[in-house]
UniProtKB/TrEMBL annotation:
<protein>
    <recommendedName>
        <fullName>Secreted protein</fullName>
    </recommendedName>
</protein>
Length: 71
């Protein structure tokens, strides 16, 4: 199973505007624990490149069931 990092990002100056982002890992990440161990550096790198946005929630696993802001 290919694990993904699903994280909710909101604009810093408009916290009501949020978008769910996805980062799919390669085949080396095969367990939830491995996913969580690499999640923080991935989100930190994303945050550094996108200064207007803030990561508010995250999880590792399969795609979310809804298209809304629920992750």
């Amino acid at each position: 199973m290919l694990y993904g990092l699903y994280f909710l990002t909101c604009l810093a100056d408009n916290p009501g505007h949020c978008v769910t982002r996805v980062h799919l890992f390669s085949d080396e990440v095969q367990t939830p624990q491995q996913c969580l161990s690499v999640a923080q550096p991935q989100m930190a790198a994303w945050q550094s490149a996108h200064g207007r946005w803030r990561v508010t929630q995250f999880r590792c696993g399969r795609p979310p069931k809804s298209d809304g802001t629920r992750i």
